[in-house]
Design a protein that fits this description.
single chain; 118 residues; alpha+beta; 6 helices
Length: 118
């Protein structure tokens, strides 16, 4: 496996079920424009805060990892956070990804990422 492929893998803290099989990791492909058209944009920003729409993020994550939504819905919180970081990471540019340290605050269906450098 190449470094490029390896960076798009989320190792699960405990096995999950997808299509009747037990899986121990999720492999994500990079999103394309058609993925955002089909699922919507899971991230928006306002006044330096980044807002994550969790239902949209889950829909996009399921599409990119090629697993049923149910697989993601049953993940433990720590794995949901890893999935969230993976999907939102696709939208950050290289410089932002290497310098930011986001903190995630869950809300009613949305979360807020605050850039610590802001």
């Amino acid at each position: 496996m190449s470094d490029e492929e390896d960076k798009n893998v989320v190792k699960l803290s405990k096995p999950a079920e997808a299509f009747g099989d037990k899986i121990t990791e999720l492999r994500f492909r990079e999103p394309k424009g058609k993925d955002y058209l089909a699922c919507g944009m899971p991230v928006s920003s306002s006044g330096g805060d980044v807002h994550v729409d969790m239902p949209t993020l889950f829909k996009l994550a399921a599409r990119l990892a090629k697993v049923p939504m149910k697989t993601l819905e049953e993940l433990p919180g720590r794995d949901v956070r890893k999935v969230m970081e993976m999907v939102t990471g696709f939208m950050a540019d290289e410089e932002d990804a290497s310098t930011s340290d986001p903190s995630i605050s869950p809300g009613s269906g949305t979360s807020t990422l605050e850039n610590s450098s802001a």
